[in-house]
Every structure is written in structure tokens, then in C-alpha cells.
Amino acid sequence: MSRPRRVTVLGATGSIGLSTLDVIARHPGRYEVFALTGFSRLTELEQLCLRHRPQFAVAGDVDQAKELSGRLTRAGLSISVLHGNAGLCTVSSHPGADVVMAAIVGAAGLEPTLAAVKAGKQVMLANKEALVMSGALFMQAVRDHGAQLLPIDSEHNAIFQCLPGTYGDGLGRCGVRRILLTASGGPFRDTPLDELHDVTPEQACAHPNWSMGRKISVDSASMMNKGLELIEACWLFDATPAQVEVLIHPQSVIHSLVDYVDGSVLAQLGNPDMRTPISHALAWPERIESGVAPLDLFSIARLDFQAPDLDRFPCLKLSMEAAATGRSAPAVLNAANEVAVAAFLDRRIRFTEIASIIADVLAALSIVEVDTLDAVLAVDTQARRAAESWLKRNGR
Ligand code: NDP
Ligand code: MG
């Protein structure tokens, strides 16, 4: 029997990281944990190290790394503890790792994920922001370095499952008419519009179907998440924005669909639990048990669909426009959104101001070509500064 596949989990202390470790622990002979990374939750990272015994751990900064290293040594474990972006890139590109789960939230995940791609790893991509920021560059690196990119986002994983293995030859050649990207509509799908400016971070994070980290929960509430996913789908499947249609499906049972020219529409269904796409990508092209309960269609009984209302969800509209504009527009959109969501979670701005900040930053900055990592990072920095100065200007 071949040796277990060694997995680096970037963002191990987060929601996707923990679900990944749950699946791995169900298959001890098949996978082993090579490296775990965290950022602010040091005690959680320590607990994960005690349980999964990786060769490497990566903490947020040098002091945390010293602290963690001391605690692990006292527990009798010999684990190398690194820190910061350099530490993340080391464990994501390390020759000892076969698979990298990219589950850091936001732009902070870009460099380590790209490092995994450039090292030709099997990369399981949850960190959609990395692809949104640097799509052309990222996909070129996947091709140049022979990396195997597997989508973890439930919708993209569903689309991947509904496409033929030859989709890389072009969607048209495979007879694909469109991709149908489903969205739950989040907690504010039916909230009266005039109440949206008073909603709290707690309400925004209380997603009706999925349990997720706080940033993506707010993105789901604003439907920015679907906007980022539209851009993500275009890069992953070489689709134009016009080939991707967003539809609200409140039950979150159909995770997305592919519409073919002969009238066939293939869908992937399942309970809303990220362990399904994680297991699918980990074992691909095989299938493994994930711990997810079987789907009970009788208890679901009905599946509903509606078109998204772009007045209710201006972030979705802004993302559609950024997808069509291309070049640096998606990176600007993403950076402004990250700053705005953090400010909302900090109670410095209203929910409805997230879209205002993004719109103002997109209007203020010129859109440029971004064909190097430095260019992407420069756009990201510039857009963050513009969003911060919006906050300052408006007394937040
Ligand atoms: P969480 O907030 O739960 O976890 C984020 C992880 O990233 C944590 O391990 C966190 O460490 C780490 N992290 C945060 N900031 C930094 C930083 N600056 N440097 C290094 N590490 C950092 O998020 P989720 O797990 O929900 O989401 C992760 C990614 O997966 C996101 O891109 C999200 O869009 C995507 N995704 C998530 C889904 C879900 O169901 N949760 C579904 C589809 C996609 P610490 O906690 O120690 O601070
Ligand atoms: Mg998703």
C-alpha cells in the first residue's frame, strides 16, 4: 500500500481548516497532516498540533511562534514552528507536502497559495480572494507548474463535478451553454430594504444554512460572496461573466448546475456541509466517506429559485461590473470589501456602507493591467488605502 498523502492545512484554525482536519482524521491510513497554520488563535493551533502531530506549525508572528514552540516542547512534541508569510510559503511549497488546503481568509492567503501552485502541488482552493485578486497570473502559474487545482467552494466544486473531464478544452467544445451559480440569498434575503442599514454583525453572521467564518458570513449577507464566486468561476472554468448566471436557491441543497446545449442540466446536490467538497477534492478522482449525513429529499420536500435583486444586493452588481471590466478591477473590489467588512464587524460602519465604500474606491482608482505578483500587491495596497481614507473622511 502506498504511503499516506501529506497535507498542509493553511488556515487550520478556521472553519474550513477544522472541517478538513475532521475528514482527514476519518482516514488515518490515507492522509497525514504535514503542516498546520493559524494566525490569532494560538491555543486552538496548539490543540490541533497535539491532536494531529504535524511536522510543522506556523504562527502569526515571532513571539507567538516562540510561545507555541515552548508549549509543544513541554508537551514532548518535536514540531518545527515557523511564523509569518515566509513560514506559510515554506510549508505550502515544502517538498514533504503532497496536498495543500488553501483556507486562509482574504488576501493574506495569496502568496502562500501561489507558492503551493508554483511548487506544483495538488491545491485545494477555498481561499477565493486569492484567485479573484490575481486570476490571470494564478491560472498561468497553475499551467506553468503543473499544479492540480481542485475547487473547494461548494458551488465550484459542484460545477467541477458536473463538467466533463475535458472542460479544459473550452466550455463551448464540451457543449456547455451556461453555468448556473446558486446562492442562498443569506440572512437578509427577505429583510425590508429600509431595515438593512440597521442590521448588526451578529445578524449578518447568522447564516440560515451554513456555518462559516465571520468575513465570508458578511460576504454572504451582502452577496459579495456570490460576486467573488462569479469571478472565481470565470477563472476556474475559463468562462465569460455572461456565461455565469446567479440564481437564488434558499434551501442550499443544489450547490450549482451546468446547462448543456442539448437541454440537459446537471446539478450536484447535498446537505450544506463543507466536508462534502473537501472530501471530494481530497480523494479525487475517488470517493471517500465524509461524515456528512445522507440527503433526505423527503424532509426537504421543495426546491425554490428566484432571480437576485440587484437593488437589495449592490455588492453583487459591483462584482458583476468588476468581472466585466477585468484587469485590476476585481483586486480593487476585493481589497475595498475586505477593509469595509472588517470595519462593519468592528461596528465602525453600517452594513449598507460596505457597498458605498467599494463603489467609491472603484470609481476613484484607475484600472490597470496586473500581470505580476508585485502589480497585484500594489493594487491591493492602493485600494486598501483608498478604503481607509474613506473611513477617515467619514469620521469612522
Ligand atoms: P475563518 O475565519 O473561519 O478562518 C480563517 C483562517 O485564516 C484561520 O485559520 C485564521 O487564523 C487564518 N488567518 C486569518 N488571517 C490571517 C493572516 N493574516 N495570515 C495568516 N492566516 C490568517 O474562515 P473560513 O474558514 O470560513 O474561510 C476560509 C476561506 O475559505 C475564505 O477565503 C472563505 O471565503 C473560503 N470559504 C469558506 C467557506 C466556509 O464554509 N467557511 C465556504 C467556501 C469558501 P486564526 O483563526 O488563528 O486567526
Ligand atoms: Mg461558496
UniProtKB/TrEMBL annotation:
Pathway annotation from the record: Isoprenoid biosynthesis; isopentenyl diphosphate biosynthesis via DXP pathway; isopentenyl diphosphate from 1-deoxy-D-xylulose 5-phosphate: step 1/6
NCBIfam families for the chain: Dxr, PRK05447.1-1, PRK12464.1
Co-factor(s): Mg(2+); Mn(2+); Co(2+)
Residues annotated to bind NADPH: 13-16, 127, 129, 213
Protein name: 1-deoxy-D-xylulose 5-phosphate reductoisomerase
One annotated GO biological process: isopentenyl diphosphate biosynthetic process, methylerythritol 4-phosphate pathway involved in terpenoid biosynthetic process
Family: Belongs to the DXR family.
Enzyme class: oxidoreductase
Pfam families: DXP_redisom_C (PF08436), DXP_reductoisom (PF02670), DXPR_C (PF13288)
Biological classification of the source: Bacteria, Pseudomonadati, Pseudomonadota, Gammaproteobacteria, Pseudomonadales
